[in-house]
Every structure is written in C-alpha cells, then in structure tokens.
Design goal:
The protein has a 6-stranded mixed β-sheet with strand order 2-1-3-4-5-6. A hairpin with an 8-residue loop joins strand 11 and strand 12. It contains 4 helices and 17 strands. By secondary structure, it is mainly beta. Pfam families: FG-GAP_3. This is Cartilage acidic protein 1. Keywords: Signal.
Length: about 240
Amino acid sequence: MSQPCAHSTCTAEEKHLSSAVFWTREENNSRTEEMVPRAAPGCKEKKRIFETGSGRYSIYIANYAYGNVGPDALIEMDPEASDLSQGILALRDVAAEAGVSKYTGGRGVSVGPILSSSASDIFCDNENGPNFLFHNRGDGTFVDAAASAGVDDPHQHGRGVALADFNRDGKVDIVYGNWNGPHRLYLQMSAHGKVRFRDIASPKFSMPSPVRTVLTADFDNDQELEIFFNNIAYRSSSANRLFR
C-alpha cells in the first residue's frame, strides 16, 4: 500500500492521479451538476462545490493530513472582504465554525441530500480513519452522523464514492470502494425512527481490489443503474469491474 503524502510530497503512484470538481447549482428545487476534470499533481485532495445553508456556495476540500497539518477545508466567499464591483473576491475557510475541520486521510467526497430532505450533506470516505457523514443542520453547520448511521467503516481505507437511489425507494444510498478491502454498497434504511445503512454487497461485489474510482450511471440505457470500479495495476494486474 502506498504511503501517505506529506503535504507537498507524494509517492510516484499518487502524482499520476487526476481529480474532478463537481459544480452544483440548485434552482427551483432542481439540481444540476457539471464535472470538470482537473490535473492533480502533488498531494491528493478532493473538492465538491455546493450550498451549505449559509446562502453562499462552498467548496469542500478533503485533504490528506499529515499529523496536524492539512485538515479538511470548507471555503466560502468572505462578503466583508469582497467587493465584486471592483472585481475583488475574497475567500475564507469556515470549516472550524461549520464543524468539519478534521485531520484524516481524505480520499473521496460526495455531496447530496443524503439525510436531509433538500439540503446538501457531505460523505467522505477516508484512509487510516473512519468515514464522515456530515448532516447539514441548515444553518451552515454540520454534525457527523457516520457512526450512528453505520457507515463509518473505521478499519478500512476508502477510495472513490458515489451516491444514488439504487432500490428506488426515494432515499439516497452510498457506494464506495476500499483499497484492497471489502467494497461497500449501503442502502439507506430506517430503524426505530433513526436512519441506518445496510451493506448489501455480494461476495463478488465486495471482493477486494486496488480500487481508485467508483462511478454509477445507466451505462447500457436499460433504466437500471450500473456501478463501475476503476482499479489500478498495483503489484499485479487488476481489471476494472462493471456491476449490473
């Protein structure tokens, strides 16, 4: 397994990774997303752009921390320091006040109304530490519900994540890979009035692999979602996998 990067230095494996930014716009209760590929030399990080409930768009950055360097960040426009009429746009990190300033091995981020009915929640799968499921309180702050919802997976090393309603029950489900560990397919359930997720991954689906990216889409246009695992050749060959 590759060693974590130390803020500005990474293994050769990490330097060839690419990342993507998801621009999310919400208008009239509808959501549109545009994926913009970007090069990612240096340290691994994942970004998602969305609204936190503060009335401003935010950028969530999942960093790969090294000790007490490199916590996750939540970037918003600073209205007091900005003057758009003069072309001045200032940004500030509000992660601490939002409750999402965490030191971990950030590997994947996905944003959507997972627990909330319409607000954007944040799911992060991490390496060398539990996953995060930040529930949006609607006031610009979040609370981590991963452990209580059963998706913290503290002994695995997450890679790639996607959100979808896989069983068409109107609830957002979570799929992600674990580096050479069991991959997860979590369906959202309810137990005693509380949200819980149940892993329904089959033995073939959960079979460990050196996974990097997880995508879900209706690839064959049959009105059913498929799940794609992008694996890398790490120490030996490892084919990609597509599940129907």
